[in-house]
Amino acid sequence: MNGTLKTMKSEDGALLPKAVIGTNAWGDALYGKMVRGSYVTEGVMHEAVKTSVRVGIPFFDTARDYGLGKGQPIVGRLCGEDTVISAKYTPMGKYKQGQVRASFEKDLLDFGRSYIDIYWLHLPNATKENLTEMTDLYREGKIKNIGISNFNLKECKQAKAILDQEGIPLYGVQNHYSLLDRKWEKDGLTAWCKENGISFWAWAVLEEGMLVPPKKNEKKSIMKLMFARKRRKLYPLYKTMQEIGRKHHLKIPQVAMCYVSSKGFVPICGCRKPYQVEELAAAVNESLSDEEIRLLEDAADATGVKILGADMFRFAVKKKF
Fold first, then answer.
1. Nearest to 257 by CA among 288, 303, 291
2. DSSP string across 173-228
3. 18 contacts 56 by C-beta, under 8 angstroms
4. CA 307 to centroid of chain Cα atoms
5. What percent of the chain shows pLDDT beyond 70?
6. Angle between helices 235-248 and 290-303 (to 10 degrees)
7. Three-class SS of residue 120?
8. Is residue 67 a contact partner of residue 24, using CB atoms and an 8 Å limit?
9. If both were cysteines, with which of 27, 121, 194, 297 could 70 make a disulfide (CB 3.0 to 4.6 Å apart)?
10. Better pLDDT: 101 or 306
11. Are residues 305 and 234 in contact, defined by beta-carbon separation less than 8 angstroms?
């Protein structure tokens, strides 16, 4: 294990990232231009990977469908042994025995590795059956940490109980959380995570770019076009973020990142370019005061804007098979 990564572990060996680089936007030219508004070459992304190691956040989160299936192999090509890979199994449809292992083995081929640092059950479907397969892989040393993603509080408790019976810790919960949508904090899920020593990773911290003020002549992605009307309602919030950011030498998007880390959560932010990695690192190395956090939350609530929604994937959760 790289020396930098050794310093990012607790006494019991759990990984403690300050921030994680999301790779949902990593893909080929067609995907980049159509969905994300611009294409970034693998050479540039490789420089971003090297920058992540240098600034102390060499953590990369991915999944099979990212970049329309192109993202995960790119992660495998670009992320070396001095990086941590976080990947997922997404259960869709009726459970079939061996499905997790089969998918996991394909993931290993994508990454060119013999193990995956953190493996998440991406939806609460057939939770017991899927987690049982993951525990087998954990005992074989192929999964180093087990997490769950897009689970509500009740489902998190059920998953933890399953792993507790196996004597395996639940590493983390990965859910949507941002300044604009704090549902999981309000319903007690994040407090439960803290009480149980479970890491909470927040995805969509920038709400698909909506917490990035528009620039003149900026390239429009599908997401930005979808939420253009809501974006105009965010200008008062941008102003508050800008005022607080000046005190910490942070830009408005960095304030959104810093807000999440200041709450004790791990922000996952999409980065394809070296400067984006540097800005993420700078943001999570700052800390907001309780008063600044209150001002931001009040300003966010006053907009009445919700972008993605904490429950956006509930449609894919199967009640019965």
1. 288
2. EEEE-BTTB-HHHHTTHHHHHHHTT-EEEEE-TTTTTTTS---TTPPPPHHHHHTH
3. yes
4. 16
5. 89
6. 160
7. strand
8. yes
9. 27
10. 101
11. yes
How does 253-275 read in b/e, with b if 16+ C-beta sit within 10 Å? bbbbbbbbbbbebbbbbbbbebe
Enumerate domains of the chain plus CATH numbers: 3-316 (3.20.20.100)
DSSP type of residue 294: H
At 299-317, the pLDDT tens digits run 999 999 988 777 778 888 8
* Total residues found in the chain within this entry: 321
What is the helix (H) or strand (E) element at residue 148, kind and residue range?
Answer: strand 146-149
| Segment (H or E) for 111 | helix 99-111
What ranges in the chain are assigned the alpha helix state H?
Answer: 3-6, 29-31, 42-55, 71-78, 99-111, 127-139, 153-165, 183-186, 189-195, 222-226, 228-232, 235-248, 252-262, 274-284, 290-303
Q: Could you give phi then psi for residue 229, rounded to 5 degrees?
A: -65, -40
Confidence bin at 237 (pLDDT 50/70/90): very high
Decide if 78 contacts 25 (C-beta within 8 A).
Answer: no
Structure pTM?
0.93
Q: Residues 6 or more apart from 88 whose CB is under 8 A from it?
A: 62, 63, 64, 119, 120, 121, 122, 149
Per the structure block, which two tokens stand in for 275?
A: 């400067």
